[in-house]
Amino acid sequence: AVNMVPFPRLHFFMVGFAPLTSRGAYSFRAVTVPELTQQMFDPKNMMAASDFRNGRYLTCSAIFRGKVSMKEVEDQMRNVQNKNSSYFVEWIPNNVQTALCS
């Protein structure tokens, strides 16, 4: 396991939520794990106004809730990390943590 704060001076978190819906959105539908992970890294779902294309992720924690497969979650997070490898630092091994609350 990797500490989410690898250096004491780099302790600022960028929080993203998925699915992020408005109060008036009453239509409920099942969201797939690939959709959730795509939304999780979408700048529109971040709680800070920042352009993530100008920086890199040191660490990442993805916490899922509900009836989802942990294997599917880990596979999808690995896919996101491989497709967007330029946005993740390579000098911190295993810098993505996943958790499932059921």
UniProtKB/TrEMBL annotation:
A biological process term (GO) from this entry: microtubule-based process
Highest taxon above the source species: Eukaryota
Keyword Nucleotide-binding: yes
Key words, A-Z: Cytoplasm, Cytoskeleton, GTP-binding, Magnesium, Metal-binding, Microtubule, Nucleotide-binding
GO CC entries: microtubule
Cofactors: Mg(2+)
InterPro entries named in the record: Beta_tubulin (IPR002453), Tub_FtsZ_C (IPR008280), Tubulin (IPR000217), Tubulin/FtsZ-like_C (IPR037103), Tubulin/FtsZ_2-layer-sand-dom (IPR018316)
Main location: cytoplasm
Gene Ontology terms, MF aspect: GTP binding; GTPase activity; metal ion binding; structural constituent of cytoskeleton
Occurrences of domain Tubulin/FtsZ 2-layer sandwich (ranges): 1-102
Stretches that traverse the bilayer: none
Subcellular location: Cytoplasm, Cytoskeleton
Protein family (similarity comment): Belongs to the tubulin family.
Quaternary organization: Dimer of alpha and beta chains. A typical microtubule is a hollow water-filled tube with an outer diameter of 25 nm and an inner diameter of 15 nM. Alpha-beta heterodimers associate head-to-tail to form protofilaments running lengthwise along the microtubule wall with the beta-tubulin subunit facing the microtubule plus end conferring a structural polarity. Microtubules usually have 13 protofilaments but different protofilament numbers can be found in some organisms and specialized cells.
Functional description taken from the UniProt entry: Tubulin is the major constituent of microtubules, a cylinder consisting of laterally associated linear protofilaments composed of alpha- and beta-tubulin heterodimers. Microtubules grow by the addition of GTP-tubulin dimers to the microtubule end, where a stabilizing cap forms. Below the cap, tubulin dimers are in GDP-bound state, owing to GTPase activity of alpha-tubulin.
Designated name of the protein: Beta-tubulin
Source organism of this protein record: Coniochaeta sp. IBRC-M 30188
